[in-house]
Structure formats: structure tokens, C-alpha cells
Task: structure prediction
Amino acid sequence: MEHPIKLYNTLTRQKEAFTPLNPPLVGMYVCGPTVYSNVHLGNCRTFISFDMIYRYLTHMGYKVRYVRNITDAGHLENDADSGEDKIAKKARLEQLEPMEIVQRYTLDFRNVMAQFNALPPSIEPTATGHIVEQIEMIEKILDEGLAYEVNGSVYFDVNKYNETDNYGKLSGRNIEELISGTRDLDGQGEKRSPLDFALWKKASPEHIMRWPSPWSIGFPGWHLECSVMSSKYLGEQFDIHGGGMDLKFPHHECEIAQCNAANKVEPVKYWMHTNMLTLNGKRMSKSTGNTLLPEELFTGDNDILDKGFSPTVVRFFMMQAHYASPLDFSNDALVAAEKGFNRLMEGITTLSVISPAKESTFDVNSWKESCYNAMNDDFNTPILIANLFEGIKAINSAKNDKASLTADDIELMRKTLTEFTFDVLGLKLETENSSSDKLNGVVEMLIAMRNEARATKNWALSDKIRDELAELGIQLKDGKDETGFTIN
Amino acid sequence: MEHPIKLYNTLTRQKEAFTPLNPPLVGMYVCGPTVYSNVHLGNCRTFISFDMIYRYLTHMGYKVRYVRNITDAGHLENDADSGEDKIAKKARLEQLEPMEIVQRYTLDFRNVMAQFNALPPSIEPTATGHIVEQIEMIEKILDEGLAYEVNGSVYFDVNKYNETDNYGKLSGRNIEELISGTRDLDGQGEKRSPLDFALWKKASPEHIMRWPSPWSIGFPGWHLECSVMSSKYLGEQFDIHGGGMDLKFPHHECEIAQCNAANKVEPVKYWMHTNMLTLNGKRMSKSTGNTLLPEELFTGDNDILDKGFSPTVVRFFMMQAHYASPLDFSNDALVAAEKGFNRLMEGITTLSVISPAKESTFDVNSWKESCYNAMNDDFNTPILIANLFEGIKAINSAKNDKASLTADDIELMRKTLTEFTFDVLGLKLETENSSSDKLNGVVEMLIAMRNEARATKNWALSDKIRDELAELGIQLKDGKDETGFTIN
Result:
């Protein structure tokens, strides 16, 4: 490849050259949403980050199979494998079938992702759609002697596994520390070690989502589905596994253990983790209530915000931070991002009105190179955006005749700017708004002409403008100082 | 209920009063799309018809759980249970994972349904998501002695079933006729009778989609999924089962047999079937090539059409026929529907400019009653639409002072018209277009003013209009006879 990509591998804790197992094919798995409530903005950041990575890899010529699962089987309320099934609980409260809740929030999730202009993944498998395969993987792990059955439930034997592999290799923890950090929790009695985790749980009588298995009527442990679906659709070894950093332990650690136990190979070449989102400096979370729904962000219907921000502005705001850095949401930061986004869009528009010169005073090739260098350095979108603004600066100078660009350079800048802005960063021109902006602008022109007509006592023209607008469904409203209008 | 609904029950071959099993709850199952290619317009008609039925039942106060499945497991190419798996075949040709094809066409299907303003069903279960449950139902049927295993495949024993039940009761066929009508087809050797159908098929080595079962690594027969998913989400007995009439035999007949065999109850109280769509008088079908994709219909990109038609006009066109009557698509019929739709929309708008009178010359209450009577008579949308136009006629007369309406009647007409048009028929105002119509109209006003300015040699004003429009991204283009424009 002309532009080798480097990425930070959480597993090795270093930046590595990206060399896919079967180029130009790339397999990428990202842990998707649990669909028992509205999608959380922190999760949106993760999915938007991997959307950008998916887009850039595709832009660089890779053929990416991008799998993002939907967790539609209720999983346990805490990592101690006890507590109530979240989906079943909500279903009982609302007197709904769990799959009705799943449908509602899956639709909500897809809708939000579409608003953020995130491309659909190649495959969106569901946990309930892979019960057979999950039972098969449990059987393999049992055959390897790395799991045990107690009272119809099956647990992964972490100590046994750790004798020949390293449980904790992703999160950098060791098993002794982990054990000393655990407390005895309810329902732990069946486990040989507090670190052991459920592969299959026997369902209590009130648990709604349940399937038959060789061990009991029950349901799979929630770490299992990702191991099963990633290996089913990407192979036992694949290139990239992503997710939010809160999933690193225990979820991803358990995934690694399950895959190694069942398939005897290290499943993932590159582990990538996105960082957290904070809101006015504090951790965002459904449980603490310091939270902002995507819809509230778009409409401004939340006390934290002075106004709404369009999905593309929010996306631009997210792209201004590196995916692996923390990001703080606040009204002021979003206002600043909106200004920046508008400046970027205006710069791209300005490009089309610059007159070509014979010489360029701006080195477009090296500018373009810097854009690629930024993205090749672990998908560094803030550096990319800073670079794009260097280009916008040159464009504005050329417009004001303080710089010059040849026709070829103008075309190269147009191509580079639009590719990075729209294809890679996934931003979009807000045509809906821009169409209504145009309508407002044109109506304002007619109001100004009508004001002139009235100043010269040309009542015929003044009335004509008012009446013709009314026929189009646009009502002028003459106020004390100025004329407003409403559009039906 | 104040307005008892009657519907035509295909099972009893008569119109019956609709009395749900557990009012106000209603369970409705509709056979959904097979997602290995773009959705067919004939299928769209079926789904739009049941969307209207879902909307009307909801409007009447029923709490409907509407389940529409997605057939994502490839099924056999013909009803003789032989031939190649359709999804797997396409996957091999395109070098894609079957679930990648499934994802692509599921997204296409959802997109088309959203364009047609069809509400998402309450649950959209997938065939691959219910392999465990399908295996369970096969086991129940085997336990009842109504199926048998041969070489890893399991077949339903139609003759045995027919000893105590009636195979053919839905389609009105009898088993002797059916047998005499069959030919010996390839792969029939395993069956005791040519009418027997597969519940489970052992997979050939090249068959991609496959799961373990007690009988073989294989896949479920395609009649099975609907029996399994309808009983899982709606209960072993539920109210309405719908689908295209081409599914009546053998698909729905087999569903009835499977459910009776496994659960010992008649599964469905009311069977409803939509009629076929023809194109210029001929049967529409993917295999004959006499076909029109929804997208081609919207864009006009098909030789059959002079222009494109908006999804809501197409929906209106479909609603002008009864769901159980055949419907022929043609350019002329669509043009006529577009005119009718526009007249309906204009009538609703006109309602807001009528001055209330002291007396009404139009009996709004009896008109409203007629609307409900039409819908209560087996969802007779053509009669409903004819009635709505009676209302529009009265509105237009009132506007021209040839009739009068009281304020209360105006309000009742507004409510009735909008409820039936938007909530029940599922039509929508095309706001996108109407906004761009306004913009076009206002720009035309400015062009006319500029022409006047030019006629009086007021070049300053003429240039000012051109330049200000250009700043808004609207370019005037002076032609020989007239001035056109483009909007960026």
C-alpha cells in the first residue's frame, strides 16, 4: 500500500502497522447496542468512530466486512451473573413481549444511526438469532475441559484456562489481583472461582427469554454471543475487533478466553477501543441521570443546551477529538463546533468561485499528503480536520486575491476536501436546511423590494408581491418596524 | 363495538363479524418478504394492504400485535422441495456471505416500506433467529406420529394427517385431486406421498446455511418458520393471518397442518388474502421479466412509464382497489390516480378557507357514517375513497358559495378527512415537494419582476435581482425566449 496505516492495538499496547490477514479483505467486528432502551450518546460515539474507520479503510481500497451485533437477548444486570434480566423486567413492567421492546429500540437505534449518517454494517446479527451456534461453542469449550456444568448452568473455568493461556492479557490485569478484588456476591455459590463467568444460565421460572439446551431451559451468557458471531461471519481469526473501552474488561477479556478455549487460536489481530464521553465534565450514564439523548441533542430539548444541534454538527464535534481520547459534551463546545462546521462547508463552496491562476502559492500535494498522514496515524481525525482548515484558509486567501491556485490544484483540492469531508468523516451537507434557507432568502429579497415600492408609494407593486406570495402559501406580516412572514 | 367490522374469511369462504379472541387485543401475522433480492411490487401491495388493516384496527381502538417475518434462510427453489437454495446460490455467485445478502435486501425492503409510509410491525422475527423453536416444533409433530425421518430429513405425513383433519381446507382442494395432479419430480424418492413436505432437510455439502439438529446438519423447511413464529409471538391460536393469495396453497395449507399437528388446535380464526398485481394486463413476476421495481416507479426509470410517481400516489392508487381484487398497473392509471390524489389534498386544504355558515346543506354525520361503513365492510377502501370525494365535492361547493357548512361540521369534516386520509389510508402530504414548489414559485416571481425591469431598461434592478439570487446559490440563465434557473 502507498499509505501504510498504523493503529493502536490495545492488546499489544502499541501502535502497529495494519497488515490484514487476507488483504484486500478486512474483517471488522464491533460490539453493538443492547436494545432495551434508547441508544446512549456514548455508544453513538463508539459506532460513529468505527463508521469513520470503516469508511477510511474502504476509501483506502480495502474490502471490509463489517459486523456489528444487536444484543436482543436480555443479559444479567451485573457482571456477577446474578440479578434480573433487563429486557424481561421491562417487558413485565410494560406488559409487552420482549421482542416488541427489541423491535422498538432497534428501530430507534437504526433511526439515530441514519441521522448521524453512519453506514449500515455489512451484517447485523442478533444474539437470539444464534442460539444454536452458542450452544455449539459451549459444547466445544466443555469438550476442552475449560467449562463445567452445575445445576443446569455452565461456567467458564478461568483458573484452568489460565494454566495454559493468560486471562487478563487485554486489560493488563493478572488473575491474582482480580481474585483479591472480588467480593462474594449473591448467586456465586455455583462457581469454582469468582472470576468464572456463565456460558449458559438455567432460567428462573420468571425469566421470559429462554431456550432448550443440553443442560437446561435457559439462556446464553452475554459474553458468548460476540465470540460466536464474530467467528461465524469473519472466521476464527480476523483483523479488527472494536468497542467502547468500558467493554475491555470483562467482556472482551471473556471473548478472548472463549475463542481461545473453543478454537485454539487467538481470535483478533487488532483490538481497538474508543474512549468515553463526558457531559459537562462528568461521566455520562443512564444510571446517574447525567445523560443526553440523541433526540434531545438534535432538538435542544434538554436544560444543558441553549439550542438544538444537527446530527452532522454533532458528528463533526465528535470527529474533532481522537477516537481514543475522552470527549466532553457541553453547549459551548457544540456552538464552537457548529461554527467550525459551517466554516468548512463555506470553504468548500467558495472553491467553486475561485478564478484559476497560472501558479499556485499553496502546495496542494503536500497538503493532501498531510491529510492522509493524519488518518494513517491511528485515524487521527482532529489532525485531519486541522489540515482541512489549512486548505480552507488557502481557499479564502485565493478568493480575496491574497493567494492563487491553478485549475488543476483547485480540482485536486475539491476532490480531496469532498472525499475527506463527506466520504471519510461522513459529514453531509444539510440540504433540507439549505433549501429552506434559500426560500427564506428569496422571500427576504421580495420583502425588501416591497419595502422600496411602499417607500415610493407604488402600492400596486407592493400589493402584487403580497398577493402572489399569499397564493404560494407565504403570508407577509407587517409589523411595527419590519415585515415578517410565515410559510404554510 | 359501535361499528362492528366484517371481514372475508378465506377459511370459511364468507364474510364474518370480526370478534377477536381476547379483545381489545388483536394478534395479526403476515408472511413477510424473502430477502434475497429487491422487494417485488406485488409484495408491496400485500404489505401496504395489511398496513392499512393494521392502521384501521388500531384506529378502531384495538391493540394490535402485528408480526411480519423476514425469511432470511434460503428455501428451496420450488415447492417440490428440490433444487438449489436461492440465497446460497446468489451468495456463491456474488462471493458474499448469505447474511450479507440478507442485510442488503432487508435494508432495501425497510427503505421501500418507509417510502410507502407503512408502519413497522410490532415484531419482525427472522427464520434464522428461530432455528431452536423450529426444531422443537418438528419434535412435537414427530411425537404425534405425523412426520417421519428419512436419511436425515424429516417430512410431514399428509395422508396420516388427513385421516383426522382436512388437508386442503383453506384452499378448498381435496387430497385425491392434489395427488392426481402431481408429477414425479426429482428428489421425491424419500417421500411417502408426493404431497408430503419437508420439515427439515439434510444439507447437501454445497448448501451454505445449515444448522445441527437431532436428524442431520441441515435447514428447516420453509413452511415451518411461519407456524413457529406466529405461535411464539401470538399464541397457538390467534386472530388474523394474512398474505398474498399465491401463498394460500401450499404455504398456508401447510402452516395449518403443522400447527394442528403440533398443537392440536386450529391456529387462525380469520385468514385474509390479498389479490395479485398485474402490469399492463399481464401477471407481474420476476421470472417472466414483466416487472417494475418500486424504485423505477418512483423515478420513472422504466419504459412502461412516462414519468415517476411518488410513493404516496402509488399507495393511493393501490387503495383505490379493494385488497382482495386484482389490480392492474399502467401509466395511464397512475396518472389518473395522481390527479385524484391531488384533488383530495387540495380539498383538505380548501376546508381551511371556508367561512362557516349558520346551517349546513351537507349531512356530515351521515357522510362520516358512510366512511366507517365502507371500512367496516371488509376494509373497502375504494368505497371509502369515493365517499371521501363526496365530502370534497361538498367542500368545493361551500367554497363557491353553492353550499354551506357550520363551524362544527367544518371541524368534523376536517377530523374525519384527515383521520381517514392520513391515519387509516396512510397517505401523507409531500412536504419536501411542496417546499421546493414554493421556492420555484418565489424565484419565478423574481424572474417576472426582473423581466419588467429589463423592459423598462432598469438595468440596476435587473442586475441586483440576478446577483442577489446568485448569492443564495440560485443561478439565472437567460435563454432566447425566457429565463430559466438552477438551484445549487
